[in-house]
Amino acid sequence: MTLQKNRFHAALLLFAALCWSPIVVAQDLTSAPALTAQPRSFGHVIGDLLTQRILLQDGGERFEPAALPGADRIGIWFARRAPRVEVDQQGQRWLVLQYQIINAPRALVAVALPELNLASKSGRMLKIAAWPLSIGPLTPGQVFAEGALQAMQPDRAATLMATATMVWRLKASLAALALSLCAWLIWMLWRNQSDAQQLPFARAWRELKGLERRARIEGHGIDDNAAAWIALHRALNATAGSALYSNSSPGLLEQAPQLLPLRAQLDDFYAQSSARFFACAPVARPISLMRLCRALRRIERAS
After folding, report:
1. How many helices and strands, by DSSP H and E, does the chain display?
2. pTM for the whole thing?
3. Are the CB atoms for 51 and 145 separated by under 8 Å?
């Protein structure tokens, strides 16, 4: 009876093995390991980007994934970016997965890129095995504290710049500026001196200034000095290009229209000059020769 029972159990086991074997074979036929190009297994720290490439082929035939793994955080160590498919120079298609390390351990640790199963629309599977690698800390937990291996390191010295050329250029620029200012000052002095010698009202102004100093010493005003009137008449004649007589402001303004803003003062000047030299009559409203000459000189310089 025991022998028959053992034979019955053996038969059941043989039948179960025969029934299970096709299923296992079918499972193996629908799943194949993927050919992958893995990243370096060591020397990684936080922030590093790890690239994993999977060949999209199954038994030499093109493999079309039904869906690609999405961008997501993988555990405490990795964040997976959006995948992409690339074609190499031989025309082979690769699925590119990138994982970024998002955490820093306090000591060297061993982790692994996750295992993946890619399914195709036809039901085939590509299996990507987990890939072990190590992640190190950014800084050691303890320093050696010997020699230059201290916890605090000095700042890196700033790179010295060559300043000889810049100093030379600065000096040359300052020298050029100084020469320009000196040349401008010399030109202004020469221009003022030249104007005082050549321009009619500038000569008259210089003459009136001398007469004013002398009149101040003698105790009377310059407006009563005949030489001052004659000096201003001479400047007006030189400006008009001819000798002007009483009430000659219209002829003067035709030759020198820039003096039109002073027409009223010029009419008064000629009227008072005629009364002073020819009628010997007192002047009701005397004018200031210095003020008139200054205004004429200003217009002369501007024109």
Report:
1. 7, 13
2. 0.42
3. no
